[in-house]
Amino acid sequence: MALTQYKYMDVIHRCFRCGYCKFPQDWEDVDNCPAYARHRLESYSNGGRLWLIRAWITGEIEWSPHLADIVYSCVACKNCEEKCPLSFAGDIVNMVTAARNEMVEQGLVPPPVKKFLENVQLHGNPYGMAAKKRSEWMGELSLEPYNKQEFLYFVGSEGAYDTRAQLAARALAGLLQKAGTSFGVLGNAETDDGNEVELLGEDGLTEILAEKNITRFNELGVKKIITLSPHAYNAFKTVYPRFGGNYEIYHYTRILQDLLQAGKLQASQMENARITYHDPCFLGRWNNEYTAPRKVLQAIGGSRFIEMPRSRKSALCCGGGAGNYFTDLLGGSEDSPARIRARQARETGADILAVACPNCLSMLEDAVKVEGLENELLVKDIAELMNGS
Amino acid sequence: MDSIYKALVDIVGSDYVSNRTEELFTYSKDLGTSEPRWPDYVAAPKTAEEVSRIVKLANEQNVAVVPLGGGLSLAGLALPLKGGIELDLKRMDQILELNQKARYVLVEAGASHGKLTAHLHKNAPHLMHSEPGAPPAATIGGNIAIHGQGDLGHPYGFNSDMINGMEVVLPTGEICRFGSCALGNDWYTLHPLPDVSLFMGWSGSTGIITKVSLRLFPCKKIQEQDIFVVDDGDLIPDILYELTHIGMAEDLVVVSQEIPPPFNRLHYVLINIAGDCRDEMEFKRQLMFDGKLSKFIQDGTAGIGAGGMDVERPVVSKTSDWRKGGGFEYVGAIVPVTAYPECYRHGVAVSARHGIPYTTLGRVLGTGHSMMFSWTFAFNRADADSVRHSREALHETDEVVLKLGGTLWKPAVFGQKLLMDRMDPNTLQVMKKVKTMLDPNGIMNPGNWEVA
């Protein structure tokens, strides 16, 4: 790669590779970087990755499929950015994404990443499912198309197509209806939000998706958006303003918190349930929302809320970020982050692992099954817990 | 398939072995100024038994084995100078036993200091271990292998003086234990044969440390850092003599550095004290400042820079960013405390010659029995000339240390050669005999401490 192309050339050599980026806030262990936890080789640590990227940029090493796997094994969870003590910490994920930009430019991405991007390009979702089936998530629910209601409920690709996440999407829609919230959906007119596409380095497609969504939102007069997914929440909040899309964005947990406070929604009852909560990276570390999900969970009657030692800024990512819920570059091991996280949840004594993200939902439910914990630990979206499903 | 690669896969599993460029590149690099040295394989074992099998394989195949902990020595001590198998020990990271009444903890050697600190904080907050002035990813075993020292150096000496027992995989593959654990007892003392210096300080060239029993010490409820500032470095030995006489401090460190400007040419004596109640703290402060240090204050030659500050884990990585360059390396020496002024002056001079802002630090070891003195040279990793200057400054400083009558701590190969050139021939022969006896095929971290 030509030196001048890489946006962070004047910064990337500043990583000292000291390893702070591997730890949670309390230094409990070096396994809070999902890729490093999975592989335990320095090449997969964030420092190792940055040094490899720099070596590729300067021509010290050649591109290889393995290099691409390492670069794409970062799930953009931002644990590294929380722990790195140096002044460029806020650009660590950007440095990785910029390297992915170059790999995309040169057509040098791992096959599952290529598939992810192709599917989004062709079908508007990473699964390669038909766009006209996007609204099937609604099932028997009778939901109004968006037409100047107060809120647009943006379901996202996971909620629309992933069979497990569909349950959460429906649960949330039911709750909003029950609370009398004025909202509508886009149905088959919805398309991918582009959050993962940007993190996978496909800037052009990100722009197309953002502009497409923004045009639709503006045509329909959308002002306020509720998202099921923290990933969509992040895209609308931090990416879309770059393309002129400015809306009031709410992750659904904040809406549920408000509805509870306003008395428009009754908290469910779950006698003797022991609930722990997994912070999604794109709600927590990316957007600093730690309170609303906890407030909602703590309102559930008869239950006990148990915090995991690794929570909030220290939460271990489920490993699904930056498209890895589809590309699965960290799977296949008992040290896959989702499996570690499932064990951490079970160690609290909880019998319910609550999540607030459709990616985390499917990643962690799969992990619980592989760990053989399905009879001991239920993985539930907060929306499902609130409507008693 | 490469037979060594296949054998390694059989031992540790395919996830934890690599002979691919990306891993070999990563492990070829040290964080300091050393030139890259490429291994042929990287393996990350989980148990001492796996380490043993790898070492036996290396003997059969006559390839080198280089153990690696946190990789933070900065002096290239875990670089594979002659290729072979780079052994990343960080998967051996379990905390096996915490014996609070006997005040020790048994850990696998790849456990990080950060992990141990967090474990103690959670499970035994009244106990602590001596943390090195390194990032928390530094491993317990790695620190012992380089004869490390840390923040309890004043009362208790080197970190390697705080060992109750060790498990070591010998260069021929046997797993050996030293200390009371060798009798099948608890890991509470190094006796009956406490001299296990066969492994400490040898940078893994005589064996691979796989378990360590570390002594723990009282962790007082209140901790603070006080700072005494002096502009005449010649006074430092006297000040330290007074402070070590009363033995009230847990850590005594003297820092002088060009950046930021308020530190330039001044000497900051960092005094960490601890107590279980306010009366104890006040008693210690009075002994130090009203008693031993008052004459310097009254003379107007020194003053209290700050008092009652929180004791925080040093973030040494920030040193790497002083020139926005991502790198630094230092020479560490063990010198008499009286050598502080000369060490400081030479540090300033060497740094000035190479256009590097000077940074010097001295930590008292024992009751003023010696001092670890370091000269740090930051560099810009992206600028070969800057790296060269730092490397030359390091070499010059190595020479200065020996001229001043000091000895080098965890020396790089350049410094090891300087030491061995001056070493008593009989001592050298003992070193050679030890090495030959333990490592007949010369496979363990070759190139380090090699007697010609």
Question: Care to describe what's here?
Answer:
The complex is a heterodimer of chains A (389) and B (452). Chain A is of the alpha/beta class and 389 residues long. Chain A folds into three domains: 3-109, no CATH class; 121-258, Rossmann fold, CATH 3.40.50; 267-386, Rossmann fold. Chain A contains 17 helices and eight strands. Chain A has helices at residues 34-39, 46-58, 65-72, 79-83, 92-105, 111-123, 156-161, 163-178, 195-199, 203-220, 230-239, 252-261, 291-298, 324-327, 337-347, 358-370, 382-386, and strands at residues 151-154, 183-184, 224-227, 248-251, 274-277, 304-305, 352-355, 378-381. In chain A, the strands form two sheets. In chain A, strands 2-1-3-4 form a four-stranded parallel β-sheet. The longest helix of chain A has 18 residues, at 203-220. The radius of gyration of chain A is 20 Å and the shape is globular. Chain B folds into four domains: 3-88, Uridine Diphospho-n-acetylenolpyruvylglucosamine Reductase, domain 2; 95-218, Uridine Diphospho-n-acetylenolpyruvylglucosamine Reductase, domain 3; 222-309, Alpha-Beta Plaits; 316-411, 2-Layer Sandwich (Alpha-Beta Plaits), CATH 3.30.70. The model of chain B has no long low-confidence stretch (mean pLDDT 95).
Strand-pairing-aware structural class of chain B: alpha+beta
The CATH class of the largest domain in chain B is identified as Alpha Beta
> Which percent range fits the helix content of chain A?
40-55%
Low-confidence stretches of chain B: none
The total strand number of chain B stands at 19
Summed up, the helix count of chain B is 13
Main interface pair? A-B, 35 and 45 residues
Percent of residues in β-strands of chain B: 15-25%
How does CATH name the architecture of the largest domain in chain A?
Answer: 3-Layer(aba) Sandwich
- Can you tell me the CATH topology of the largest domain in chain A? Rossmann fold
CATH architecture of the largest domain in chain B: 2-Layer Sandwich
Trace the largest sheet of chain A across and list its strands: 2-1-3-4
Q: Report the average pLDDT across residues of chain B.
A: 95
Enumerate how many helices of chain A there are, as a single number.
Answer: 17
Return residue spans of chain A where pLDDT drops below 50 for at least 5 consecutive residues. Answer: none
**What would the principal axes of the Cα set say about the shape of chain A?**
globular
Instruction: Give the total of domains of chain B.
Output: 4
Radius of gyration of chain A: 20 Å
